[in-house]
Write a structure and sequence with these properties.
about 130 residues; about 15% strand; about 20% helix; 3-stranded antiparallel sheet; binds iron/sulfur cluster; elongated; two-stranded antiparallel ribbon; single chain; alpha+beta; Alpha-Beta Plaits
C-alpha cells in the first residue's frame, strides 16, 4: 500500500494533461505533409495510353472507350485504390496528381468512382503538344 502515495502525483498530472491522440473528427486532422491521398485526374492532359491501368497494383483503373470522340480514358475505382500513387509516377503527361485528401468514406460504392462526364471529353488532336 506504500505505492499509492507515490502514484498520486502521476495520476493528478495525467488527469490535467492534454490528450496525446487527436480528437478526430471533433478536431480537424493534421495529416503529414507526405501523406498520399485521393488522386486527381485531368482529362485534358490525358492521351489514353493506358499505362496507369497497366501499372496499378490494385486493378483500380479501368480504361473505357468514348465512342463519340474515339478516345480512351480511365475510370478510377477508389474503393479498390490503396493510394500508392504508382499511377501518378507512370503518367508521363501529368494527367494524374496526388492530393492530401484522405476523407473519402461514402455510403454508396458508386460515389467512389472518378468518372469524367462524356461532355468533358474532347477529341484528341494528332500531333497535339501536351
Ligand atoms: S492518365 Fe496518363 S497514364 Fe493514364 S491513360 Fe491518361 S495519359 Fe496514360
Ligand atoms: S494510387 Fe495506386 S492503387 Fe490507386 S489508382 Fe493509382 S496506382 Fe492504383
Amino acid at each position: 500500500m506504500k505505492i499509492i502515495p507515490k502514484l498520486v502525483p502521476t495520476v493528478v498530472k495525467t488527469v490535467f494533461k492534454k490528450p496525446v491522440t487527436e480528437q478526430y473528427p471533433y478536431e480537424p486532422p493534421k495529416p503529414s505533409p507526405n501523406i498520399r491521398g485521393k488522386i486527381v485526374y485531368d482529362v485534358d492532359k490525358c492521351v489514353g495510353c493506358g499505362l496507369c491501368a497497366i501499372y496499378c497494383p490494385s486493378g483500380a483503373i479501368e480504361m473505357i472507350m468514348i465512342k463519340e470522340v474515339k478516345r480512351r480514358i480511365p475510370i478510377f475505382h477508389l474503393d479498390r485504390c490503396m493510394f500508392c500513387h504508382q499511377c501518378v509516377e507512370v503518367c508521363r503527361f501529368g494527367a494524374i496528381t496526388g492530393s492530401r485528401e484522405f476523407e473519402i468514406a461514402a455510403y454508396n460504392k458508386n460515389e467512389l468512382k472518378i468518372i469524367t462526364p462524356k461532355e468533358r471529353v474532347k477529341p484528341l488532336k494528332v500531333g497535339e503538344k501536351k
